[in-house]
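To the wet lab folks,

You asked to see what we're planning to order before we commit. Fair enough. Below is the target structure as tokens, and below that is the sequence we designed to fit it. If anything looks off to you, flag it before the synthesis order goes out.
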């Protein structure tokens, strides 16, 4: 009831090891059972819940692991705005203080919309991120960063490397002109990442470090002899705490009044996880293989002192069930909320318990 254990005859490259091998995973059985229940009526989806402090995976669920593998890359969509926003705050902070001007729908982007118009609508940097304004982030990529800075930031955040064994590294297309750069910086096109990479991106919002995800806690042979489990790579710092704190504060607006507001509010208008704040980012884009409308959500909670990072990817193919934001909201509810209400210490206890169960690795 409190551990996830697999027994296998496989012991590749190991001599003198008595089979079967018992592998204990870092997964939280109760949380994983709830996640599976949440996904019961969702056709194509991935959910990853991670301890952002050290990369320990608490839940890793997929509805169609063969037809829709979690190890593959998929369109990054507007999760790229987190990359662009972090680059702006790190390298061109003055731009974050200027209002953005745009014309018409904030989601529509053409060549002539890459330059700020003389008149039109305005949005602050915070509002542009909360509402996922494509024109504003395309302008930032083109006028403040450039293609090298955007791609370098993707690399710095670990998005262009394999997040774990068996998972594809992220991909970015060559940038030939300003429109392609605008689409890359806003997430309309040009990059692909795996769900595990998305979860790791969310985890950087805790203390600015890129962690190495892992899910094997320990292994023993049939005699009970402990087998060596490779230690994960030490987290590497990539963002200053000033940038991290500002990003988290901005991303709370996504769930409170931005693109994920409906998912994180009950019908009576109250926040689902009240009093716990959630810092998040949505992404939405049509994609192929499989065909459908791809929806992302990444986030951390509690927003002021995160103990859980989550990434969800849902592909809707005509019959809409729930969005990625709704799935994430339910997952976070199951992690933080019990019959007596939602408490930060509930999620903290969950991650602390899994750390204690995993013990030392080396």
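Sequence we intend to order:
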């Amino acid at each position: 009831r409190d551990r996830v254990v697999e027994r296998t005859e496989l012991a590749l490259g190991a001599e003198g090891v008595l089979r079967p091998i018992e592998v204990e995973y870092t997964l939280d059985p109760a949380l994983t059972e709830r996640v599976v229940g949440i996904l019961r009526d969702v056709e194509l989806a991935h959910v990853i819940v991670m301890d952002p402090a050290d990369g320990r995976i608490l839940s890793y669920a997929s509805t169609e692991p063969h037809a829709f593998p979690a190890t593959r890359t998929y369109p990054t969509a507007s999760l790229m705005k987190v990359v662009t926003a972090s680059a702006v705050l790190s390298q061109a902070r003055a731009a974050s203080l200027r209002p953005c001007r745009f014309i018409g729908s904030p989601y529509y982007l053409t060549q002539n919309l890459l330059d700020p118009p003389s008149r039109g609508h305005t949005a602050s940097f915070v509002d542009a991120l909360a509402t996922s304004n494509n024109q504003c982030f395309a302008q930032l990529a083109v006028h403040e960063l450039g293609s090298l800075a955007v791609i370098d930031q993707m690399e710095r955040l670990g998005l262009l490397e394999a997040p774990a064994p068996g998972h594809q590294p992220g991909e970015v297309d060559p940038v030939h002109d300003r429109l392609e750069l605008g689409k890359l910086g806003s997430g309309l096109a040009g990059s692909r990442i795996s769900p595990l990479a998305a979860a790791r991106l969310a985890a950087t919002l805790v203390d600015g470090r890129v962690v190495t995800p892992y899910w094997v806690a320990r292994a023993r042979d049939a005699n009970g002899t402990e087998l060596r489990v490779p230690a994960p790579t030490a987290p590497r710092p990539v963002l200053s705490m000033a940038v991290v704190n500002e990003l988290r504060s901005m991303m709370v607006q996504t769930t409170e009044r931005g693109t994920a507001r409906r998912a994180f509010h009950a019908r009576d208008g109250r926040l689902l996880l009240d009093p716990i704040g959630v810092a998040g980012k949505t992404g939405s884009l049509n994609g192929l293989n499989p065909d459908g409308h791809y929806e992302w959500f990444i986030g951390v909670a509690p927003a002021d002192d995160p103990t859980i990072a989550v990434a969800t990817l849902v592909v809707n193919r005509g019959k809409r069930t729930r969005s990625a934001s709704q799935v994430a909201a339910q997952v976070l509810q199951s992690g933080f909320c019990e019959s007596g209400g939602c408490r930060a210490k509930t999620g903290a206890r969950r991650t602390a318990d899994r750390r204690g169960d995993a013990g030392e690795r080396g």
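Structural context that might help your review: The CA atoms of residues 28 and 353 lie 9 Å apart. DSSP finds eleven helices and 18 strands in the chain.

Thanks,
Computational group
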